[in-house]
Amino acid sequence: MKFASWNINSINLRKEAVLNWIITQDIDVLGLQEIKCEEANFPKSFFTDNNYFVEVIGQKGYNGVAIISKYPIEVLNRNIPNFIEEISQARYLEVKIKNYVFSSIYVPNGNPINSEKLKYKLSWIEAFIEHAKGLLKFEMPVILAGDYNIIPEEIDCWDEQVWKNDALAIPDIRFKFREIKNLGYFDSFRLINKNKCEWSFWDYQNGSWNKDHGIRIDHILINSYGADEIKDCKIDKSLRGLNKPSDHTPIFATF
DNA sequence: ATGGCCGAATCTTTCGGA
Asked: Could you tell me the CATH superfamily of domain A2-254?
């Protein structure tokens, strides 16, 4: 089974790229982030006509997550259950597919760091950590895949000096990532690739792709049952070189 | 070809992203 995550930055602009990729790479389950549309505007039939199952948590204009699967989807949660806010943002979808629990996750960005946005990011992650703790009750692989907006360590960005004061890399945020891991989750990419420097995001600005100025912020976290079964984890950077690409590339793990 | 983003909605400008 291949489980993937891709911040697509508008599903309607890139639905053909998504379908083409999951077919050519033989992806079984794909979590999407930043679909940037309400559920009614998600191109569901484009995927269901090709025999995929689709679940969507939409929002107008920005955010939004979805899951596309070769196999039937049982929805477990349409948000983080213990995260209460006045207007819920579409950032979390948790499902069961076959004998796997899988989530598509879009963690808030948090910039600028001297603002309510960072506080929101921290409180969102804290609620997520509490929830992830509860997910450890499942005696099967739990796969928490998404755009975490966290650069876990110095080796996960092209230049630590550029990023060290950013909401993606400040110590408080890196600490949260370690907190999740310390619950008993593994960073799939790092589990498989001990020292590799690879990126999943290159900014549209400043010619970042051409200069290879990237960062690794899209992650697939797995519990110990997942770690027992994992065979490989790869970032497919080729997608960033397409015409009209998303600024993120997909990451996938094979079980 | 050395020169700097992109997407959606509020739409010839603003906001959010990272």
From this structure: Endonuclease/exonuclease/phosphatase (3.60.10.10)
